[in-house]
Every structure is written in C-alpha cells, then in structure tokens.
C-alpha cells in the first residue's frame, strides 16, 4: 500500500528539528513579507527555505509540487500582465499582445508570495513524519481524540484505495466502460464510488465499537506508546523567529 | 426524545470515526473524477456526507482535517481549509433544519452550498493568486470580465462561480443518493437521540 504523505526519511539537521518549530516557521515565513513588503525580503526568505530543503536533501521531491504551481503562475503572469486594470506603462509587445509593467510587477509579488508559502510548508511536510507531528501536538495539549482522527486518515486512505481498485476491476469484469465519451464516463462514476463509500460508512460502526471497547472515551489521562523525543535548539530557534518578527515590526514602524 | 443540539461539541466515537472516512471519500472522489477525466473536482462528497450524518460540527471538522491532510501532498490546499469548513457547516445546518429531503431540494441545496463556497473562496483567490483559479473555463471568463469591467472582484467571483456551482450541485446530489442508500442502523448511529434499540 502506498503512503499518501510526501514525507521522506532522512538524517539531516532539518529532520532533527522539533515539528513544532517547523510549524512555527510557516506563519513566520508568511508574516515577514507582509510586515516588510520588499522584494529583497521575499527573495531572502525563499532563499532560506530552498537552502533548508537542499540541506535536507528533499529538494527533488518539491519539483512536482512547484511544477504544478508554476503552471498556474504562468496564467497569473499572462492575465495580470495584459489585463490588470491599473496597467499603464507598456513594457514590450509580442504580436498583438501587450505586456504592462504594473501587471507584471503585481504578478511578481504573487509569484514570490506563493513560492515563499509553498517553500515553508514543504519544509514541514517533507521532513516531518505526520504521526510525529500529531504526537508533538498532542503533547502540547491537542485532544488525543482529534490526534487519532488525523493519524487514522493516513491508514484509511490506502485501505479505501485498495477497495476501490478491487471494485473497479469487478465492475470492468462485468462489462462496465470507464473510457470513451463524457456521458459514458459520467455513468461510470456512481457504480465505482458508491460501493466504496457505502462499505466504508458501514465499517465505521464496527470501528466505533472496537474503539469504545478499548476505552477511547475514557476520561483517564492518556499515556504515550513512544518516549518523548528530545530535540535540540527548539527554544533558541523559536525565540529567534519571534525576535526577528519583532525586529521587522520595529523596523517597519521607525524606519 | 429531544434531539441533541446540532452545535453540540460532545462528539461521539461514531462521529469521530466518520471524519477519517469522510476524508477518504473526498480523496477517492477526486481520484475518480481525475481517472474518468470528468470536468469537475468532486472532492467534497465526504465532507458533505459527514455533515449530513454528523451535523455541522462534524462536517466542519471533516472539512478542516481534509484540507490539512491534503496539504501533506499539495500545500496549496491548506489555504482553502476555510472553504471546506464553510461547506461542512452549510450542509450540516441545511440538513439538520430538514431542508434536504428530496432530489429537487438537493439541487437547491447544492446551489446554496456552491454560493457559500464561492463567497469564501473568492477572497482567498484574490489574496493568493490575484483572482484566478487555475481552471481553464473559469480563467477565460475572468480575463473576459476583467477586460470588460476593470473589476478584479467581479471577475474573480464569476471565475469561481462557474466552477463551484455545477461541482457542488453534483456533489450534493451524489451524497444525497449515497445517504438514501445507507442502511438504517448506520444512520441511527449518528442521530444522537437517547432512544434504546431492542434486538428484535
């Protein structure tokens, strides 16, 4: 069964940073360019994120994600470059198409913002095992019941995908067509989806009973199966980000 | 035999177990839509079903957790978690008020939910992408409206509407169909009235 998370195991120092610190890095990376709206600041943060991804040796896994994002960003650049209402200064012309400076600058802002946010998320997603993140959050006070829900998604999806491929094979064996005209494909949707969904919903009853029997609703304090991992530099890194944010605010107000 | 309030935060085990299944159903719906090359997303069937069975709180939770987990395969979806929460809440409220009781009403409900999703998504689209959605038909309309009216907001709203409303109508219809096909004992699991079942 294939895992749906993008997490890649590794031994770099990025992998060894506390999941909570990596979580804090996301609002940090989003807030700083909002406080200091300069292209240099955005470039610096993107550079930092990319450097961390390189150091963690996971940069290759970011390519499909960035590839998809770039596809959308190209339409943003084209549409804003040509049609943004504030467009005035003509930058260059290709055939009948005119690109304007204001629209392209706006598109650059959006591109930097998107790459920055995605980069920050990628650090968390690619170097943190989902169950480690959930465990860290539960230790910080998140409800263990919600923690169970999140972790179990990662188990249920591969299970449901396996069921779906069984059902697809069965329906095809009965002669159902899944390729061809749009109408044919629309008609195939329900017979493929229906059995998986009905089956999974009926299974929830058993799952709920199994959990109840094991004291899922018990009010007693929960213990952990694994010992708490110790991470170095968590406090220093978190304080550092906080100080930099405060410094950015101060800089914005006084300079 | 009063029904528990639909806003109750005391979630039963059955309701909690419903959430991962809802996320899985969303995932499978999206996968099938891509596999059959359908022109819609169909990635919120699970959220809608969870809201129908468990109420607005479970629907909203399913929506939020859904997008957070999708975020682990595609970080953009983190940003749209608010839309999923709104969809879950809207379906839960409509269903608990007893609005979705026939196919015709399900279409109207899909329309309402599509509008809710549009209203919530448009500011995100504008803040994040400058107004476009990445959908070819929607973006073509965006360009056309922007060129005609100079209003980014109107263009972006229409861009989202043409994609969202047909999608949500189909999603609510499919979910309603599945809901009607569910055995009584599964629906009973979530109705939360303190009725005691007998074995005969």
Automatic annotation (TrEMBL), chain A:
Topological type in the membrane: Multi-pass membrane protein
List the GO terms this entry assigns under cellular component, sorted alphabetically.
plasma membrane
Q: Report what the protein is called.
A: Energy-coupling factor transporter transmembrane component T
List the subcellular locations.
Membrane
Q: Where are the transmembrane segments?
A: 23-56, 63-83, 103-126, 146-167, 182-202, 236-254
Keyword Membrane assigned? yes
What are the protein's UniProt keywords? Answer: Cell membrane, Membrane, Transmembrane, Transmembrane helix
TrEMBL record, chain B:
Mind telling me which residue stretches traverse the membrane in this protein?
A: 40-65, 77-96, 102-120
Transmembrane helix as a keyword? yes
Q: Which UniProt keywords apply?
A: Membrane, Transmembrane, Transmembrane helix
Give yes or no: UniProt keyword Membrane. yes
Source taxon at top rank: Bacteria
Task: Please give the name of this protein.
Answer: ECF transporter S component
Q: Which organism is it from?
A: Neobacillus novalis
